[in-house]
Write a structure and sequence with these properties.
The chain is α/β, with parallel strands linked by helices. It contains 22 helices and 14 strands. β10, α18 and β11 form a beta-alpha-beta unit.
Length: 607
């Protein structure tokens, strides 16, 4: 074939029907719908998206702002690197801020301490002329702003110093906000003095970190925003002034595309609300401060948190936010200068090496993301309407309705983690038994109205901490694996069992090749454990497993035996009658099995 023919060749067009036919052939007769998956938001995700699905709407910097609030994206206005600095004294805060700005930080951001408003204001004031604020001041807002105004020499304050009264009651025993008169006064007075400072905060992270799905987060953010609009309009503020004071903080989780779509949908919804209130286009552009999720972080294998935070920060930037905080990988046990610097450098890499500040709306045009954005916006608007019909945010706090809705989502998430339908690397899969950790106090009290933050990995962490306590009383907590037949025959299921036990902190001790009762007896005598699991192929189980189990159970009636995998249905009763306690397989609930075993070990130790 000559070069002319090669260059003239055109690939044949393939239709959606062609793809479906090929896919169904690979599925061996199953419908293409078998490849659909379901999300916690009750969305159905298809295996393939085309131009008929997601439609690109508008341009960056124009309503409905799903594509971002700046026409050129981050090319003319980069997102602010707003790492929250932890501190103990004003001198330490000053020193850390100085160091952070020298190493790439671009916003004044730190964790507020009640009663230390003046000290933190004095430390921050010297930087206020050069950098915007990114501070959740909580109920200290008025005192902090007043102290800051005393400390600054001239010029206005920019960025945001916010307070979310609804978020405060959502995490407390109270079901109604305090009198907002003082808060409204602070907002109005600050608007006059510092027109470029945002002071009304909608902290959506409290719902995310309690286990809410994206739709629930979006609906809560919209309902909270409307509550504040109504309060400030009643106080006499102009609608455009109100919109110019509001900033939203979102926690960004591990579901990469869902989180991008969530941030885009949030701007769509807020723009629609602004339009209905008659606000000017220029003030309807939602300002978002993002932080990486605490909900996804793990106590064990903390360096994996680096990867999680990198993924979450990447999603936040693609979602078009204005401020970003990356939680240090070891923040659960206390940060170090190294972890704080690495967290900041994640953002610098996204800017300087990944060049995410060079493209306007890099996620725009992805059919999948565009369709996901539309679906999230529709479902969130529907739920927002339901919250409004129930009386708004204070009412759903008082009734406990919102807490119950989020709790139902959390329960589903936790159930999936326990059964390992959802993986947490280093926790419920690929756990490292060599690691140790200290217990972290977690508020688990469900007796009040509060929406409590939690973490998805806690159930398995609690198991490992229990095992660590058992081991301090004597020896490694282990289970023996009786490997029937050759290494090739037993390896797959022995590997499975090792990975199945590790999330609970239980180590697996493998036997050599077991071909007889005598081999198994020798292994039990050598290890002296209370629990063993048979590992091999179904054929080996049928050939020798049942006979060996029967004899071992006769000789060691107090020892507990399990089997990795499931034999043929007609053989199950034979195994159970021979003394087997349970079958362990891919559909077994990993957490519940480990919890039962550990509880038995604790009971035996107490006896």
């Amino acid at each position: 074939m000559g070069m002319d023919k090669i260059m003239a060749y055109r690939f044949p067009e393939t239709t959606m029907d062609d793809w479906k036919n090929k896919a169904e052939q690979a599925l061996k007769g199953k419908s293409i719908d078998a490849l659909n998956s379901h999300t916690y938001e009750s969305l159905i995700l298809k295996p393939l998206y085309t131009r008929e699905d997601g439609k690109i709407a508008g341009y960056p910097g124009s309503p409905d702002y799903r594509r971002g609030i700046n026409p050129l994206g981050y090319r003319d206005t980069k997102w602010h690197i707003a790492q929250q600095i932890s501190w103990q004294s004003a001198d330490e805060l000053t020193s850390k801020l100085t160091d952070a700005f020298a190493k790439g930080q671009t916003a004044i951001s730190f964790k507020m301490k009640r009663g230390n408003e003046r000290e933190s204001a004095l430390a921050a004031a010297r930087f206020s002329a050069s950098y915007p604020f990114a501070v959740d001041a909580g109920s200290s807002q008025a005192d902090f702003i007043a102290a800051l105004e005393e400390a600054i020499e001239d010029g206005g304050i920019t960025g945001y110093i916010g307070f979310d009264p609804l978020a405060e009651i959502s995490t407390s025993n109270r079901d109604k906000p305090k009198d907002l008169g003082g808060w409204e006064k602070t907002i109005a007075e600050t608007e006059m003095k510092h027109p470029n400072l945002r002071t009304v905060l909608v902290n959506v992270g409290v719902y995310h970190n309690a286990g809410a799905n994206a739709v629930q987060e979006l609906a809560a953010s919209a309902a909270s925003g409307v509550f504040y609009i109504e309060q400030l309009l009643k106080a006499g503020m102009d609608i455009d002034a109100v919109f110019s004071k509001i900033v939203f903080t979102f926690a960004v989780g591990a579901n990469f595309f869902m989180e991008i779509a969530k941030l885009r949908a949030a701007r769509m919804i807020w723009d629609r609300i602004g339009e209905l209130y008659g606000a000017a286009e220029s003030v309807r552009a939602m300002v978002i401060a993002a932080e990486t999720s605490r909900f996804t972080k793990t106590l064990y294998d903390p360096h994996v948190n680096l990867l999680r935070s990198g993924n979450e920060a990447f999603a936040a930037v693609l979602g078009g936010v204005q401020f970003v905080h990356v939680e240090p990988f070891d923040s659960l046990e206390g940060t170090t200068p190294l972890s704080e610097r690495v967290a900041r450098n994640i953002q610098l890499i996204l800017q300087e090496e990944a060049h995410l500040d060079k493209v306007a709306d890099p996620a725009g045009g992805s059919w999948y993301i565009e369709e996901l954005t539309e679906q999230l916006a529709e479902k969130a608007w529907e739920l927002f309407g339901k919250i409004d019909a129930l009386g708004g945010m204070p009412a759903v706090f008082e009734s406990g309705w919102l807490k119950n809705e989020i709790a139902a989502t959390l329960a589903q998430r936790v159930a999936d983690v326990k059964a390992r339908k959802q993986s947490i690397v280093g926790t419920n899969v690929y756990a490292n038994l060599a690691e140790t950790a200290k217990a972290i106090p977690e508020n688990r009290d469900d007796r009040d109205h509060g929406i409590r933050g939690t973490r998805l990995s806690i159930p398995f962490e609690e198991l490992r901490l229990k095992v660590a306590a058992l081991e301090t009383c004597g020896g490694k907590v282990s289970m023996g694996l009786i490997c029937l037949g050759s290494l090739k025959e037993s390896k797959a299921r022995a590997d499975f069992m090792e990975g199945f036990l590790a999330p609970g902190g239980i180590s697996a001790i493998r036997s050599g090749m077991v071909l007889s009762v005598a081999d198994a007896e020798a292994f039990i005598a050598e290890t002296g454990l209370a629990r063993y699991c048979f590992c091999s192929t179904d054929e080996r189980y049928t050939e020798m497993g049942l006979e060996i189990l029967s004899e071992l159970k006769r000789r060691h009636p107090g020892v507990v035996f399990y089997l990795a995998g499931q034999p043929r249905p007609e053989e199950k009763n034979d195994w159970l009658e021979a003394g087997l306690k349970d079958f362990i397989h891919i559909r077994s609930n990993c957490h519940d099995f480990l919890a039962n075993v550990i509880a038995e070990m604790e009971a035996a130790g107490n006896d």
